[in-house]
Amino acid sequence: MLHTSCLEISTSAYFQNIEFIRSRIGTGPTISSVVKGNAYGHGIAQMVPIAEKAGIHHFSTFSSDEAWEVLESSSQKNEIMIMGMLHPEEIPDLIRNGIQFYAFDFERLEHAIETAKTLGLKAQIHVEVETGFHRTGFEWADRKKLLEILQNNESALELKGLCTHYAGAESAQNHIRIRSQIGRFKEFHEFFTENQIQFERFHTACSAATLLFPESHMDLVRVGITGYGFWPTRETFHLLKDQLPLENRNPLKRLLTWKTQIMSLKKVESGEFVGYGKSFQASQDMTLAILPVGYSHGYGRNLSNNGKVLISGQYCPVIGTVNMNAVAVDVSHLAKTSPGDEVILIGYQGENEITVASFAETSDLINYEMLTRLPAQIPRKIRD
Ligand SMILES: *Cc1c(COP(=O)(O)O)cnc(C)c1O
Asked: Is the dihedral of CA 63, 159, 197, 180 positive or negative?
């Protein structure tokens, strides 16, 4: 089937990003590739084989459905870790398949223990502790109850990890909070060690912590956005810039190129309105190219009269509103255009580039949101 647009995923760009992360963390810590949100829009089925080629054999997902997709896409033995949602009735299948999952409250922990005992197997769990993010994790005040359960159920549990998550390591304004979280995590670490509970790995770092807090690396880093070639925020880049080998050279490389083609051309006379409503009136005679992508394809309405695309290596502005399935761009300044011409929505054409950040309205975290909104139906093509 032919689709109205396609996404290309660059293997070499991923290798470069992983190499950069490796240069920051040294050879010790394991890199877990975070593939929640359909691998930040890149496609789990595409990213798992690429990551395997880059030597990565640990994957983190938010939910169990994503974990199954990682398993299906794996051609080697990988560790798969669910950091968020699963349904209690899935626990038997997860245990049987050796899929690891977070235990962040007593309900889930007890479910896991009961199920493992019934099956005569061990549940492979990561104990998540609350250090200040206040979303999920065992409270400091509950540590003794937790300890007792872990001590009494050694036969049912394989303790793969002790972990936590930081509340916004990408921004300097949160750094006091992050340091206090690191401190609290150390206290949990010491508490369990003193009581002879052993975890295979300690892990806390997302991309921003990986880049900015070496003490957060421990045994494993959970790297999402940076693997895909983006700074968690612009601020993260500025905080780190001085440590980079060549100033102003970006060591990260975007994997993603988003392409479509011209569906049709349209002449518009001066004074005519374009598209729905009156948001755009031609002030001169124009030629418009109609592109077969709209907000249903992840090309946001916020790009109405605002976005740009590349055709023949030149920037062409969006004219009027972005519709559900189509958008018009101004091609009056191009020498020659025809239906079928390649259009770049994200990526390079010649010297010019459209970045994901140029989709931004206000939020600094726009990369995450824009990427994960790319619909799973758009075909993804792996390239070198
Ligand atoms: C999403 C997530 C990560 C990865 O975050 P990035 O900023 O994309 O690197 C790591 N850990 C947890 C618990 C997460 O939810």
From this structure: negative
Rounded Cα–Cα distance for residues 125 and 106 (Å): 13
Residue 129 Cα to ligand 1 midpoint, Å, equals 15
Same-domain pairing of 98 and 56: yes
Task: Please identify, by atom number, the ligand 1 atom nearest to the C-alpha of residue 170.
Answer: 7
Are both 262 and 223 inside the same structural domain?
Answer: no
Read off the CATH number of the domain in which 165 is found: 3.20.20.10
Burial of 312 (0-12, 13-18, 19+ CB in 10 A): middle
AA letter at 4 = T
Residue of minimum CA distance from atom 11 in ligand 1: 206
Rounded-to-10 torsion of CA 279, 281, 286, 290: 20
Q: Total domain count for the chain? A: 2
Residues within a 6 A CB radius of ligand 1: 34, 36, 83, 165, 206-208, 222-226, 232
Is residue 42 in a domain? Answer: yes
The answer on 146 and 262 residing in a single domain is no
Please indicate, yes or no, if residue 371 is contained in any of the structural domains: no
If one counts every other C-beta atom within 10 angstroms of the C-beta of residue 311, the result is 20
Mutate to test the pocket of ligand 1, among 58, 81, 170, 206 (most ligand atoms within 8 A of CB): 206
**Of the candidate ranges 13-27, 160-174, 256-270, the one whose mean pLDDT is the lowest:** 160-174
228 and 268 co-located in one domain:
no
pTM for the whole thing? Answer: 0.94
In tens, the pLDDT along 88-129 reads 999 999 999 999 999 999 999 999 999 999 999 999 999 999
Q: Do 219 and 290 sit in the same domain of this protein?
A: no
Cα-to-centroid distance, 68 and ligand 1 (Å): 19
Q: Is 344 within 8 Å of 261 (Cβ atoms)?
A: no
Q: Report the pLDDT averaged over residues 121-149.
A: 97
Q: What range does the domain containing 172 cover?
A: 11-233
